[in-house]
Design brief:
The protein has 237 residues and is mostly beta strands. It contains 1 helix and 17 strands. The chain is globular, with a radius of gyration of 19 Å.
Amino acid sequence: MKTLVVLMISLLTLGAQAQSLIGAWERNYTSEDGEQLKSVVIISDGYQVLTTYNSETGAFIHSNGGTWSLDGDTMTETVEFHTDNSEMVGQEFNFKIILTDSELKVVGDGEGMKFSRIDNGNPGKLNGAWLMSERMRNGELQSRDTSRPRKTMKILSGTRFQWIAYNTETKQFMGTGGGTYTTIDGTYTENIEFFSRDNTRVGASLEFDYSLEDGDWHHKGFSSKGDPLYEIWSIRK
């Protein structure tokens, strides 16, 4: 009997460890206007973003995100940017979730919202939330204070990426873009599925050299406009 109890506790512990929010999640649905929409949530350690766009055209519709924590089945989010309502920036929201290995359900009115898991943080090597900390300008690397309100953040799961430019003090949202990515043999490739500033970028693939040096992500190549770039990103803490 004692052995059985120990085994059950071990199985429950393994089950709890296996069920993690970290990774990427998606919800595909049809709007009231008949649009085919996709909502993607990327969750890293302490930070998250949700974005909705037209899955057929890539037209950007909405994005919001910030910090998160989980206490039991209650998730708490503090908004850092919101494309529809800037007054929500700085506000805290609590809601219930139901989590399995393959599904995340946000409990609400009616059936709530159900998201299916895309990945669990693998296989890409850049899973996490990053802030741009240095950038090459006029041949010199210039440092950026990552603690300032004006932020350029990239958040990645194992297969999805998104960058967001925003200001937590003025509550201004400047732009975002994202899609899928790979990290193979020192090459980081972005496949753009949405871009808030310019829908013509949708469908483009961009390749960059990347390396991880002392915990920082060194990112070198050419921008979507064809301009050379060299950026250093630091993991957000």
